[in-house]
TrEMBL record, chain A:
Belongs to the ABC-4 integral membrane protein family. FtsX subfamily. Part of the ABC transporter FtsEX involved in asymmetric cellular division facilitating the initiation of sporulation. It comes from Desulfosporosinus hippei DSM 8344. It is found in: Cell membrane. This is Cell division protein FtsX. NCBIfam families: FtsX_Gpos (NF038347). One of its GO terms (biological process) is cell division. It comes from the Bacteria. Keywords: Cell cycle, Cell division, Cell membrane, Membrane, Transmembrane, Transmembrane helix. Its main location: membrane. It is a multi-pass membrane protein. Residues 58-151 form the FtsX extracellular domain. GO terms for cellular component: plasma membrane.
From TrEMBL, chain B:
It is a peripheral membrane protein. Belongs to the ABC transporter superfamily. Part of the ABC transporter FtsEX involved in cellular division. One of its GO terms (biological process) is cell division. SUPFAM superfamilies: P-loop containing nucleoside triphosphate hydrolases. Keywords: ATP-binding, Cell cycle, Cell division, Cell membrane, Membrane, Nucleotide-binding. The lineage of its organism: Bacteria, Bacillati, Bacillota, Clostridia, Eubacteriales. InterPro entries: AAA+_ATPase, ABC_transporter-like_ATP-bd, ABC_transporter-like_CS, ABC_transpr_LolD-like, Cell_div_FtsE, P-loop_NTPase. Homodimer. Forms a membrane-associated complex with FtsX. It holds the Pfam family ABC_tran. GO terms for cellular component: plasma membrane. It comes from Desulfosporosinus hippei DSM 8344. This is Cell division ATP-binding protein FtsE. It is found in: Cell membrane. It comes from the Bacteria.
Length: 295, 228
């Protein structure tokens, strides 16, 4: 078989030159499907990472009923401080909240109050810090039963919503990737089929003089693999460069968002995309070769 | 060497190409297959290089059973059988040398050996001067010589020819027959389907006549035997 490698690669190249547009279309569909796949993987990795970092958040935010007086708020605060598993409680009063808000939008307190109808719209807020991340959920539950508090916010709640969302995304991503992947396989198989047809005379003679089916198949198989590999390589480059760019952008604008920058994951995804591209190519070729080499 | 036992071939469209054919062809024989068009000659030829499989009966070549043979064994059978056609079946974008060498390249023969054997075979069929020519630059007779060279380059035990002189003028046809005769003298069995009355009558070889899919006549040193 090694004596024939020159022949095989020559044939592969020739057939790509014969119908460049179809080859280009095949490469692009492979690329599109794999770009989507690559970004989906990175998005999911980031969502998982984000979920994890929120899960380990120790803080619980709770709003105090508007009707409470400052004294009642102080009582509530010290009452919570006594609860088991609580490390500390800090209070942001409605006045502080108003002041903070005023700073961010650049108005004065009195002007804001008059703008919203004469009363301070902000509630008092307690931030409860747990001693152990394991306790956060139980602690939040028991705070929810406290009549003086409402709107208990903690990491887990956000994480649940995030997970629900990523579940959806997983399915949609899977569907889109599968659809494009199937299109890529079909295009590659058409590509190979056309080349089989344009070389049917040669193939007939090859069979006549006793070339093995394996030998006849190789150039077509390699053609499919090459198309898939080119598509996969382009996809890996686009995903890699694009993700890098997004990372830099996110880190400079949304500094609080944790972004995954994992060299190992990077390499795995790149190699994975190349292999997936080649697999698409191989499947496409095999589809179109199955029928014709039987007789 | 070749043995057909109760062979029938019915195509999927219902055409009965061969009916209960029994034949034995010995090693080194030269055999003409004659008979009207559509009588089953080409089908018989195709059975010999396993282009077709009989509907019933057995085909054996050198005690290999072509009917029970597995698909992946077929290429190795074909390497021991040379085939020549009326329409030559040469690759138009390859030179004489490349067309002949092709038969060796595709079965994985090393490059140096390909070169030597191809040159020797081209020399044998008398085309040494035209080694670099393309098929369209050759006469019909020369093209058929290329086809013969390609068929014999693997030293096949059997050479089958389906009307090899059908597209050639009588004089050129005789050149090809001389070539086949030479090849036969070197020990290769030759089975040739033909309509060339003059050739069959002159060569005085075994003649098998096929009519309506049956063996109608089988004579050693026979003649063509049809009047038209």
């Amino acid at each position: 078989m090694f004596n024939s490698s020159g022949y095989i690669f020559r044939e592969t190249f020739n057939s790509m030159r014969r119908n460049p547009w179809l080859s280009l279309a095949s490469v692009i569909t492979v690329m599109v499907s794999l770009v989507i796949l690559g970004y989906s993987i990175f998005f999911l990795a980031n969502a998982a990472n984000m979920a994890k970092s929120f899960e380990s958040e120790l803080e619980i935010g709770a709003f105090v009923q508007m009707s409470y007086t400052p004294e009642e708020v102080q009582d509530l605060k010290s009452q919570i401080e006594q609860m088991p598993g609580v490390e500390s409680v800090s209070l942001v009063t409605k006045e502080q909240a108003l002041e903070d808000f005023g700073k961010t939008i650049g108005g004065t307190q009195s002007s804001i109050v008059s703008d919203v109808g004469g009363t301070n719209p902000f509630p008092d807020k307690l931030t409860v810090k747990a001693t152990d991340p394991q306790n956060v959920k139980d602690l939040a539950r028991s705070l929810e039963t406290n009549p003086g508090l409402y709107k208990i916010r903690y990491g887990q709640e956000f994480v649940d919503q995030l997970l629900k969302f990523t579940q959806w995304l997983r399915w949609i991503g899977f569907g889109v990737v599968a659809a494009f992947g199937a299109a890529a396989v079909v295009l590659i198989s058409i590509n190979v089929k056309i080349n089989v047809f344009s070389r049917r005379r040669e193939i007939q003679i090859m069979k006549l003089v006793g070339a093995s089916n394996g030998f006849i198949r190789w150039p077509f198989l390699i053609e499919g693999l090459a198309l898939g590999l080119v598509g996969g390589t382009l996809a890996a480059i686009i995903v890699g460069v694009g993700y890098n760019w997004i990372t830099v952008y996110v880190q400079s604008t949304l500094t609080f968002l944790p972004v995954v920058q994992n060299e190992v994951l990077f390499r795995q995804v790149s190699v994975g995309l190349l292999l997936a591209g080649m697999a698409m190519g191989a499947i496409g070729s095999v589809f179109s070769l199955q029928k014709f080499l039987r007789a | 060497m070749i043995q057909l036992t109760n062979v029938s071939k019915i195509y999927s469209n219902g055409a009965r190409a061969l009916v209960d054919v029994n034949l034995k062809i010995g090693k080194g024989n030269f055999v003409f297959l004659v008979g009207p068009s559509g009588a089953g000659k080409s089908t018989l030829i195709k059975l010999l290089y396993r282009e077709e499989i009989p509907t019933r009966g057995q085909v054996q070549i050198n005690s290999r059973n072509l009917v029970r043979m597995k698909e992946r064994e077929v290429p190795y059978l074909r390497r021991s059988i040379g085939v020549i056609f009326q329409d030559f079946k040469l690759l138009p974008n390859k030179t004489v040398f490349e067309n002949v060498a092709f038969a060796l390249e595709v079965i994985g023969v090393p490059k140096r050996e390909v070169r030597n054997r191809t040159m020797a075979t081209i020399d044998l069929v008398g085309l040494k001067a035209k080694e670099k020519a393309y098929p369209h630059e050759l006469s019909g007779g020369e093209q058929q010589r290329v086809c013969v060279a390609r068929a014999i380059i693997n030293n096949p035990a059997l050479l089958v020819a389906d009307e090899p002189t059908g597209n050639l003028d009588p004089e050129t046809a005789w050149d090809i027959m001389d070539l086949l005769y030479e090849i036969n003298k070197r020990g290769t069995t030759v089975v040739m389907a033909t309509h060339a009355r003059a050739i069959v009558n002159k060569m005085q070889k075994r003649v098998i006549a096929i009519e309506n899919g049956r063996v109608a006549r089988d004579e050693e040193q026979g003649g063509y035997g049809y009047d038209v």
